[in-house]
User: Fold this.
Amino acid sequence: MDDQIELIEFTEELKQHIKTLNYEWLEKYFKVEKGDEESLSNPTEQIINKGGYIFYVKLNGLIVGTASLLRDTDQVYQLGKMAVTEQAQGYGIGQLLLTHCLQVAKEKSIQTLYLYSNTSLASAIHLYKKYGFVEVPLESGLYERANIKMEIKLSY
Assistant:
């Protein structure tokens, strides 16, 4: 039987999944920072109510991935809170989430998407570059773990 992969939108009933998925990778590679705790514990207030979006991917009925678009302005959003559980890696779920976020950005006429990452996450950096993200200067102080900032300018 083929694996069933489905992309779904955030609902209040699914809000704990953004926290579970992100805590898994943050605790493995870095640590959960204060800003993470606030936004991941209150995604409705911290992301959705501020004009952002949260997406999930289900694999065979289980939520295994998430990504968010966090609103700065109508034209500028951060791609963040992207995570795929370890058991579901290798299914192209990160690519599916990234493609969907770029599609939504275009539909919403967002001009710039940016993200923070760490160069130790080589496969993530490779994925972002493959989709057209380029390195830009990193301001200090947002996340301790971030040592690279990347962005993509979207044209229509």
About this structure: The chain has one domain: 5-153. The first strand starts at residue 5 and ends at 9. The domain at 5-153 is CATH 3.40.630.30 (Aminopeptidase). The first helix runs from residue 15 to 29.
